[in-house]
Amino acid sequence: MKARIWMVGIAVVALVLVLSGGWLWRGAVASSPLAEKVNYDDQGRLLFPQDWRRWVLVGSSLGLGYSDREGPAGQQAFHHVLMEPSAFQHFERTGEFAEKTMFALAIYSQGSRESIARAGSYTKDLMAVEIALKDSERFDEGWAYFGFGTGRPASQAIDQSGCWSCHNQHGQRDNVFMQFYPVLREADPTAGR
User: Fold this and answer.
1) For residue 80, what pLDDT is reported?
2) Which among 55, 38, 56 is positioned nearest to 47, based on CA atoms?
3) DSSP H helical segments within the chain, as ranges?
4) What is the largest CA-CA distance in the chain?
5) Per-residue DSSP letter, 114
6) Please, which residues have CB within 8 angstroms of residue 128's CB and are 6 or more apart in sequence?
7) What is the structure's pLDDT at 130?
8) What is the DSSP string of 171-183?
9) Where do runs of H (alpha helix) occur along 38-106?
């Protein structure tokens, strides 16, 4: 009888180890895609993430500008902000932006009165893509910003006095303009605390 109890005890311990090991393994796998998405060339330039169109849309705006010098009315651009999916999943779980989090700002021209469209406006042609990246190992400021235009394969970080200083001063959380991203606000597990 004692041998049977002992065997059941070993089986329970083995089951606990297998289940906890699976949990630990899933945690490691869940965090690894962030690092795998960020690639630099031999000159230290960020390589353009080719899969950015598959990222999670977290916010959009029309004509949102940060100064009085923006383009004239009627020439306003659409801005679509997308977040790399594994970074979004991490944010949903923790309310934090993990290292290697990337956002893409896709800037499109405004179209109107074409084909069957008689009123309103729509997203037309891609004008530029910019990437925000959290990489404290590489950038002392934590976040860096990159301009890729419409097809540049790699980009150096934009000078800190540009995008970084504005995001640092006005970003609602960790250099991120959450005030403009309703999907992030809704996904934030720390909201209301």
Assistant:
1) 95
2) 38
3) 2-37, 85-94, 163-170, 182-187
4) 87
5) -
6) 106, 107, 147, 148, 149, 150
7) 95
8) -SBTTB-GGG-HH
9) 85-94
Instruction: Look up residue 57 and give its DSSP letter.
Output: E
Query: 81 near 184, Cβ under 8 Å?
Result: no
Q: What is the pLDDT of residues 39-63, one digit of tens each?
A: 999 999 999 999 999 999 999 998 8
Q: What does pTM read for this prediction?
A: 0.76
* pLDDT score recorded for residue 73: 54
CB-based contacts of 57: which residues, under 8 Å, 6+ apart? 80, 81, 82, 183
Based on its alpha-carbon atoms, the radius of gyration of the chain, rounded to whole angstroms, reads: 22
For tokens 């606000």, the residue is 185
Query: What distance in Å separates the CA atoms of residue 95 and residue 185, rounded to the nearest whole number?
Result: 9
Q: pLDDT means per 10 residues in the chain (193 residues)?
A: 51 41 39 74 95 95 69 73 96 96 95 75 90 94 94 91 84 90 94 74
Backbone angles phi, psi at 33, to 5 degrees: -60, -30
> Which amino acid, one-letter code, is at 142?
G
Can you state the angle between helices 2-37 and 85-94, rounded to 10 degrees?
Answer: 120
The backbone region for 58, taken as left when phi is positive above 0, alpha when psi lies in -120 to 50, beta otherwise, is alpha
